[in-house]
Amino acid sequence: MANKKKSSFMTDFKNFITRGNVLDMAVGVIIGAAFGAIVTGLVNYVLNPIIGLFTGGVDLDNVKTILVPEVSELDAVTGEMVVTQKEVAIMWGLWIQTIINFIIVALCIFIIVRAVTKLRERLEAKKTEAARIAAEAEAAKAAEEKAAADAAAAEAAAAAAERQKQLEDSILRQEKLLEAICESVKK
What we know:
Layout: H1 2-17, H2 20-54, E1 65-68, E2 71-74, E3 81-85, E4 88-90, H3 92-186
Antiparallel strand pairs: 1-4, 2-3
Helix pairs in contact: 2-3
């Protein structure tokens, strides 16, 4: 019984992993991570030096508020300075860099989503237009068929009226002939 559940779990897991949308998501995550690295490089190596120009050469990496300063003492054995208490600081500059990264990523995602949305709207408009044109063509075809049927009906009615007139004329001629015969018999 346990073997059957394991097999079922593994089958379900395999089906889940091999679905197209999971693979698409995995590709998206990988591309997103690479894109994040590009944006971080843009902020660190391009924007930060430009910001440093406007702030008098201050590097954002070093902008911080020190809450507890670093304490160092001379090690008696090695003769080197050893940190006995690490610095505790609010790293404002790194936080600002993170905000800049976020804004750039959000802007890029917004541009991509906006372009995709516009593309979808255009495709939907084309589909709607095609459906409208098809409906108009169908309506025109139906109107042509109705006009043809009406014309055929009118032609049939005219033919029937012509036959009716011929029949009435024939009846009148027969009546006149009958009257003539009756007149001849009377004489």
